[in-house]
Fold each of these.
Amino acid sequence: MYFCVHKNLVSTLCTKLIMKDIKRIVLTGGPCAGKTTALVRVIEHFSSLGFKVFTIPEVPTMFTQAGMNYLTDNQAFFYEGEKATLEIQLALEDKFMKMAKACTEPCIIVCDRGTMDISAYMKPEMWEEITKAVGTSTQQLRDTRYDAVLHLVSAADGAEQFYTTSNNASRNEAADEKGLEIARMLDKRVIEAWTGHSHLRVINNQEDFEKKLNRVLKEISNVLGLPQPIVEERKYIVEVVGELPDCIESQITQTYLVAEPGCEIRLRRRGWDGKFVNVHTTKKKISQTEELVTERQVSNNLYQSLLQQADPYRQTIHKLRKSFIWKGQFFELDKYLKPVDNLYILETKGIASHEDVRFPPFLKVIKDITGNTQYYNYNLALRV
């Protein structure tokens, strides 16, 4: 079944979106992740709700079909090809944004991969050189250009039986163990390229591909401000008993602001490698089963200003986060530093309620705390 929303709410939303708050969303992922099928489903679903859906084609595939060889040893040729890829990607997105602004119906733009995907296939030094030559930067492309980035995990990680190269003649990864390893590596590099975006969501490999597609629809609906079912991600107190795999490490500072009853306002700063992203999140329950969640990235100056609205009854939470994929499932491991310490909480991301969690061997589960309000960040922050 498709992910469902109330038609009358969609009608109200569409009226608001005619004001031209056009959302630009990237659909990306590793090789053989189901991206093409998901894109078709997105077009069908949101068109039926009254949206004009513009889709930006995958530029590297267009270039490959036109004669570009991304595996060439000719570095000058490779540089010019990648630079042209970025230029055309930017031009297509900008032109479609102008077209969307001219439409009378509400619009969304879905990019079949985005600009930061290009960076995953070259050395950082060349990427910096190319962005500078084009007149942009990683910060501009990753942090401010798109409203959401949805990464579909490659079937090579956790759903190997479904991995195939037959549906994409441009794919260079063979369907053998070596090819699977390359696909997993590319999958992680693409996630790393987008890490730092305020609305990056990793869509797991689930045992039912239909559920994977529905998660995509749900995340886009969330970006559009449609009411979402209240879903508890599963959480566990764990002990680290071994070496973690390659992880994305970040430091998180989380402050709760004064809010009206039934509403939660959170200000989060996430940093890694000396860079920081600030996100303002508001959660408001509209019924026992639904809530509205709005997120927006804020500047450093606005972040400092909003801190003046901190809830005096709650302390700021400080924690270290390690994000990783294990057997096709995405996890976040938080080590709390303040106001509690030596607490490790593992959270699943997008694993269906009936689906088994594939716990990694380097973590020992101490306690299942799913739904236990005592361990909600909002309550951990309470001053005793």
Note: The longest strand covers residues 275-285.
Amino acid sequence: MYEVDFLPVEAVEGGSTKSGDAISMRFSVTGSVDPAVVIIDGGFGAVGESLSEHVAEYYGSRRVDLVISTHPDGDHLNGLIKVLELCEVGELMMHLPWKHNAYASDMTNYEKIVELYDLAVEKGIPVTEPFTGEVRFGGALRVVGPTVEFYEEQLSSELAAGTSVAELSASFGSFGTRVVAMAKRVLERTLASFPIETLSNADETSARNKASVITLVQADGKRMLFTGDAGIPSLEHAATEYERVVGDFSDYPLNIFQAPHHGSHRNVGPDILDRILGAKGQPFGDTSAIISSAELSEKHPSPKVTNALGRRGARVNVTEGKTVCYGATGRVGWVTQEPLPPLEEDE
């Protein structure tokens, strides 16, 4: 029996609340008595301890077979340091930018990238770079993006831009304070039916996000796609790999699709959603779409994205201060979460 848990990332930094990813899962492996335990991203630093405790409590062990860092933003990577400290980790997958660009040390959060790597080396944990084609657990887990070439292209673009990530991080505090003052109102703007689609195919996310690892898990009769903060071209490449390895999405629809970048409208468009999920009103299958978004974040999730997913038949759930679990049964006190309704698209 598979279990996939999306933990809430509710870190308040500099007066702001910012979304992040912290995902744990376990699933059956053909030929093995024990299930595989995998963690994808660890949220901010403090979230890593909660993630480790969650694995110990609900999976009954601190053994984690594989940890994947999708990309080096602090809301994804920093908590993994605590995971490596508190858990027995079999392998760490992370990109090693210094192997691909001589100026990698100019990256934002570079110190934490090095700290995570050095900790793995100190603890004797094998480190592998997650590029397209890496397969684990007899094919149950497969990296479907990025390729080495695409990663290096995005890394060069990020370093050439230079100021964007650092300046956005520094300026986020004032924006975030406004978010906290206004509180969360997105999910209150509900409608009886979906409005006209306003999501565009514009490619607007950063090069850093586009380089995110995209992971496919096929286990226990389920197909699950985990996307980090990937952008439209990243998803297109991953979709091509999926179709090469698995088959057409229409014949082998996803059971779980993680909307990238906390449901940002900058990371998906109608065309890629049509390809992955099916056209509006013509879904390929029964898909659950999950969005990791902070409870007080007004910009995540975007109603443009939640509605676009819903138009294509997906049941959309958000973390919003809660752990969202798929597959597990018998957890005392856990309740069924209702999917999001149609929302006003007035961004």
Note: Confidence is low (pLDDT under 50) at residues 163-185.
Amino acid sequence: MQPSKNPLIRRIYESGTVTTPAGDTYPLNAAIPPDAGDVLFRAIADDRTVVKTLEVGCAYGLSSLHICSALAGREGAGHTIIDPFQNSECHGVGIHHLKSAGFDFFDLIEERSEFALPRLAERGETFDLVFVDGWHTFDHTLVDCFYGNRLLRTGGYLAIDDTDWPAVRRAADYFLNYPCFEFHSSATIPRTPTVRARLARQALRLLGRKTREGLLSRPADRRIHDERTHRLVVMKKKCADERSWDWHDDRF
């Protein structure tokens, strides 16, 4: 079912509130925006090979609802959620929403991701899509993406939310420069080019044609920096991660 047609998703966004299993109401202050949820939904819905998914950070469960809505009806579908604060701080709302929507193919791991993810890798688990929306410091995001890559099968997807946060964007840039990853899709909002960006474009226009062509022919710096603000980025793992032990990319 399309997220926009899911009555529970629509009701939550329209009301701006969530309700706990006990009937208490809280403001919707931790949720994936509708357009970002649609991008996440579409990445799964458009690829029928996506069956097993992993999510770091559930909170009130809007991203979980988008993921499970896309997985619904697929044989062997399974969604794993890592969220140490689901019951202690989020009052069990995310899991309550999934159950209310009729989804029963999910598991919750109430543990910090830096402990839970290595155990999943040690057990040999693999996933078709990994969604990272956990602790938003650079180091934690980097750890979540590192294990996300280890757990992701070739051909799968790594989705990172809140890439408009500087620390999260920095981590996303780093993984987007991996040879095994390519940009797939994103949710964006327009932004006004900075003065620095406008001056750089003007300077480029003033250069001679050969000089300009030489600069533009250099290897692309695959960062999510342009005239849009990317708040969710999906990248595809196009091949196995076979970097050498001393791999480094000077563009990052």
Note: The two ends are 39 Å apart (CA to CA).
